[in-house]
Amino acid sequence: MKRSVKWLLLGLCWGCLLIAFGWRSTPVAAASQRVLLVYDSKNTVANGTAKIDTVQRALTSLNLKVRTVSQNQYHKGMLTQAYAGVVTMINWPEVGLTNQTFIHDRDQFQGAKLHIGDNLTATEAQALGAQKQKVSLKQFTLKAQQASQQLPFSETMTVLTQTHANSTTFGTLATQEKDAATYAYGTVYQHNGYLPDWRNNGLSLTLAVQTMAQVFQRHMQQQPMLTITNVTPYSHLTLLAHLSQYCENHNIPFAVSTTTVAQNTTMAAYKRFTKALRNVENHNGVVYLQTPAVGNPGAYAQPQRELQNLISNELVAFAQNNVFPVGISSQGYWNQDRVYRQNFLTKTNSWLLLPDHQPTTFIHEDQQGTAVKQSFLAVSASSFNTVKSLAQVQFAAPTALTVKLPATQAKLQAVERQITGLNVTWYQPAGHLDTTLQAGAVKVSYRDGQYFLNGRPKMVNDVVKQNFKQPTYQHVVRLKGFFKVQGMILTVLFSVIFVILIGFIWLGRKIYRNKYYR
Amino acid sequence: MKQAVAKFKKYLSPALFAVLLAAIIVGWLLFVPPIHGLADNGDFYRAINSNGMYKLHDTYLDYVAPKYGIYQYFNENHAAIFSSQPVFVKTALFLNQVFYSHKVFDIRFMGLVYYGLFLGAIYLLTKALVVSERRFRSYVIAALVVLVFGDSSFTLYFNTFFAEPEMYLMLIYAVAALLLLARHCYQRQWPLIVLYFVATSLLVTSKQQNAPLALSFMVGALGLLMLVQSKVRRLALAGLMAVLLAAGVYTYSNINSYFSDINNYHAFTHGVLLYSDQDVSQEIKKFGISEQFGLMRSEDYYTEKYTALKPSSKYVSHQLLSKYNLPWLFKYYALHPKQFEALLDVAARDFMITQVKATGDYVKAAGHKPRAQLTFFTTYSALMGAFFPRPVCLYFIASGKLHWGIWH
């Protein structure tokens, strides 16, 4: 009896613990696993690099660490069981996979497999429990429950037919013809997945992420987070304030992704900028610190220190003005660079990964992206404008729907219409986000809608008043006194000579003219 | 001894003495291996690509590249900027093809073109300063001319594809022409007047930032009107002045937006936003520019590390660069004279530091460290860099005196 009571108490305690910690960590943050992404070609002409970037970011948002190699870089034995899965990406079907070593290793691989794009092999089709079929010159409508979106015209696409009864499909492709056949968009059978096509946004991307989540057994479904991008210290801050107010009035929680400066932070302009960000925080918004635009940092001997100093200075200046970023937003390629990743990105456990803007500047590219506790996949909200019944769409990974901060009042109204037009239930950062951002001596945390600075709760409105400090332009010069005296003496001397010279010229002209007037 | 001195004076005028001295010093510097010059800072492409040449090695900043390739096929590269520099580059290329190779260009042919012009400039300038005197002091002046104008910090440029040598030489020619006219060294004035206009026109068109100088040279040319008496000659002179002005206007109008954006941006971030004793973000707001752009203080257009917003972005172009221009800057500085004076003082401080430290002066084969600096025949520039007075007002007084001195 005593033993049974003991077990009962133990069980109750365990249950309480599960409720206490498990409740908060919704969605469940699965442990990061490694995935190998192998692509045939970058095919930059057909926007292939952007597709690779989106696949990387999508996998990262599913809490997967992605190592990316082109088929030329793949060598025998690279695909070991240390990887939870492999993703094959065909960017240029005319070239396709030519590395037989990879194809052989992939066939032998026991983990999860996902094929994106054309050139599906017979072995892959067999593993998917389906037959492959090539369809040409079609314009498909992608449908998922009530939601649908028209896809651009496609020349060829390999689709699956006669899929296995136990396979799971995500969305259907249908042509506009009457009684035309429909095909599955994403297909998962056992631990094999297939996506006939990859697009960087819209309904197709959400279905692709659902397929990925199923293949890699990641269940992280949550509502999308509205995110305002293109915010910088130079932005039209009044418009940002209007947009923040608009979101609050419509009960829309949101995030702002902003860059900042580490210098000139005593200027009134910086105070105004941080005031606008505090305003965001006070209107149901959160701030993501965006990584800066890059010049040529690799030219410096210690780019690591540069980056560490940068984030530390930026964070200190923010904290002094009661702006508390909840994470870092960045273009995806920063995660594919060892220096950027180790010295900036991993200072937080909360990312918002934006699409790459070409050209990208690497310092030490290694294509071995890592993953953090929560990583939002940023997708342009406008790509969902044509999606019917967006409310029905499920987002299988943390997703940020982005709108750019407008530069004019007229465009602001269009953005506001766009936000309300999306008609989705938005992600509530205050209820779900649990983040930490630490650089140097500053540690900013965000939990249950409360900000913490170095462990102490902070209110956004506690503003530390600082006056503008004029920067000093004093230069340390040796023999400064000598040069000052020398300069003064010469100035006086030159001035006297100049006056005498003018006097002589005037006198000379007078004498010269008098010669003729006599 | 006296006879030797007399013979020396008889056969070697001060001007020829200066030319001989300069020829030996600069000739050794430019032509005797291992040669000297300035390494490419990334700007050479502007002069070489459109003139049918290309870099043989990917060397920048550290060492001087002695050889360049000559295109053997149709050259599709257009001139990046409008400039009169191709006149000199093409001449050097022609000489190279006649005397050396059709496939490889030796930078010394570029040096040779400038070297020839330089010796002519030294001759005219010395002649203008000493007239026809052959006294001891005349030779001292000649030696000083070589010491000052033959300084290696200036002549190293000859073995490069920079446009600076053209500017330097043409300025000497222009000043020498004015001095020779003022001192009546030659009976015929027209060759000197033509020389003045040719030199100033080439100078004005050598680099786009020189375009406004056309106005300064026009002021200088006004004095020439007093030299000519007949109406026809005055009309001809007015025509030459019109040509000079047109050259300036044409060069200015050909500044492409890319370069003018860079210049405008730096005029703002390294000018308007610096050395203000007030919060400059509030000051620019009064002049119709968003105060937020005050945060760009001290930023470079080509940011070396990281920046919150790239200056080449559309946003900066629309919201900042399109909102101010030259009159805006004039107005701003007119109302902030203290800041303007401080900026001029900063400019004056580095005015006499003429040797470029960022680029190497040696070829790699010479065995020097990357970006090694030459010290041979740099006495004048070293002295001036160290001891020349700093306050900007001195420059105004000195230039005023020079101007008056020439014409009176």
Automatic annotation (TrEMBL), chain A:
Keywords: Membrane, Transmembrane, Transmembrane helix. This is DUF2334 domain-containing protein. The chain crosses the membrane at residues 488-508. It comes from the Bacteria.
From TrEMBL, chain B:
The chain crosses the membrane at residues 12-31, 107-126, 138-159, 165-182, 189-205, 211-228, 235-253. It comes from the Bacteria. Keywords: Membrane, Transmembrane, Transmembrane helix. This is Glycosyltransferase RgtA/B/C/D-like domain-containing protein. It comes from Loigolactobacillus bifermentans DSM 20003.
